[in-house]
Amino acid sequence: MVIPVDRQEGDSLPVSTFVGREDGEFPSGTAAYEKRGVASSVPSWHIDKCIQCNQCSFVCPHSAVRPVLLSDDEVKAAPAGFETAAAKGKGLEGLNYRMQVSVLDCLGCGSCANVCPVDALEMKPLGEEEAQAANWEYAMTVSEKSDKMDKNSVKGSQFCMPYFEFSGACAGCGETPYIKVITQLYGDRMMIANATGCSSIWGASAPSMPYCQDKTAEVLRGQTHCSRTMPSMVSVWLQA
Q1: CB-based contact 123:53 (threshold 8 Å)
Q2: Which of 206 and 210 is assigned the larger pLDDT?
Q3: From start to end of 38-116, where are the E strands?
Q4: Per CATH, the architecture of 25-238 is what?
Q5: Strand locations in 93-173, DSSP E?
Q6: Residue 181 and residue 58 in contact, taking contact as beta carbons nearer than 8 Å
Q7: How far apart are CA 134 and CA 197, in angstroms?
Q8: What is the largest CA-CA distance in the chain?
């Protein structure tokens, strides 16, 4: 049902399509399949300048800029043009580092380039960076190594999987980076009760659901999200 609704053809769906979802449930993580490619310019990473501070990933409103840690074997299996540098920092010895951009999910706000203290990100036309789409796909298959650093730091938190990605929030949104980092810290055990306002629009605009689950884990993990029209309020609970 997600694809027809995305095509503005939802009115053509028969009631039988929603058998088993009578309570209004929608699949989570569907925003990842849209790959909008709407940015006129996207960040290009300069590996020779990067100091690996992860600030660019921290401020990205759409989870479209992410650091990746790779073993030597994972580097060898990477596609051509997938450049890496030796990872910097205690506990990262023997690993390789790359800052990967999803050019098709980026909205081109430039927050990442603006926050970079060494100008390691440069905004370039989307057409010049389209080859990064294949690099992104590979980067998302690399094993997570979030246990290598303290996640209660800017740099360490960004090695954690975000359970909130690719929302339809406005380019440069100031709200979604906060939600993203909360899910990186606690997203595998969160319950979110969402009323109305922006947080309801970018958080639960059917069929584009940015809240997602970790499908690589042996046991499916991720937050439970519920959206209702009520007086404007958002509550977040952590499950013990």
Answers
A1: no
A2: 210
A3: 41-45, 65-70, 85-86, 96-101
A4: 2-Layer Sandwich (3.30)
A5: 96-101, 121-125
A6: yes
A7: 35
A8: 57
Residues for the chain: how many in total? 240
pLDDT score recorded for residue 216 = 64
Considering only residues 177 and 203, tell me which one the structure prediction assigns the higher pLDDT: 177
Give the residue from 68, 77, 120 showing the smallest Cα distance to 95.
68
Structure tokens at 61: 């409103």
Q: How do the domains of the chain map onto residue ranges?
A: 25-238
pTM across the whole model: 0.87
Beta strands in 76-208 (DSSP E): 85-86, 96-101, 121-125, 190-194
For residue 8, give Cα distances in angstroms to 3, 43, 148, 157, 207. Answer: 9, 30, 44, 37, 11
Q: How many Å apart are CA 140 and CA 68, to the nearest integer?
A: 9
